[in-house]
Structures are given as structure tokens and as C-alpha cells.
Amino acid sequence: MGYCGIHDWLKTRYGLAKKCEQCGSEKNVQWAKIKGVPYKRRRENFWELCQQCHLDYDDTSIGSRPTWNKGKPWPKTTREKISIGTKLGMKKVGYNVKL
Question: What pLDDT score was predicted for residue 58?
């Protein structure tokens, strides 16, 4: 079972995530997989986190911008479309990009 299947199951079985189990926020709450446990249809493998706590938990940000690909390389077509300004910004935060 993959990411979409598990999240569809969570939403069908338990509804949308409602309240962050970390900070108590009720805005932008998401289902988040607990680190170190497999992707399986088990409620105890997930917790409800607001977007900010989810980003902090996953530690997937570069500066103040989130990175949703979590370190996966971008396809060549995407890399070719990135502007020089973005490339300079990426280089500044540590990415090895050609200008």
C-alpha cells in the first residue's frame, strides 16, 4: 500500500485530521506518519499534526521554504525550467547547482 492509498484509508476510516497532537492547533491539520514505523493500515502509525509541526517533525525545510520532494532529485525537464534567481538561492543554502 502506498502513500495515497494509506491517506485515503485514513480519511475514509477516521475523517480529516482535526487537531494537532503536538501544539493543539485546529488549522491546516494533516495526517503524519510516525517515523520508524511502516506504511500500514494502522491508526497508531499516524498522528495528527498541523502543517508547521509536520514540517518541523519531518525537518524538510530549507531556510523558510519547505521542500516537498524530501531530497529526491528533480527531473531534468524541471531543472531546466528553474530560473537563475532560484538557482542562486539554492546554491546559497547548499544545493550543488550549475548556473
Answer: 77
Tallying the residues shown for the chain, one arrives at 99
15-21 average pLDDT score: 93
Instruction: Provide the grid cell at 21.
Output: 497532537
Domain count, the chain: 1
In this structure, the strands spanning 46-50 and 61-62 are unpaired
pTM for the whole thing?
Answer: 0.58
Give the type of residue at 49: L
**What is the span of the domain harbouring residue 49?**
3-59
Sequential DSSP letters for 64-91: TEE-TTTTPPPPHHHHHHS-HHHHHHHH
Q: Are 9 and 39 in contact (CB under 8 A)?
A: no
User: Distance between CA atoms of 24 and 2, rounded to whole angstroms?
Assistant: 28
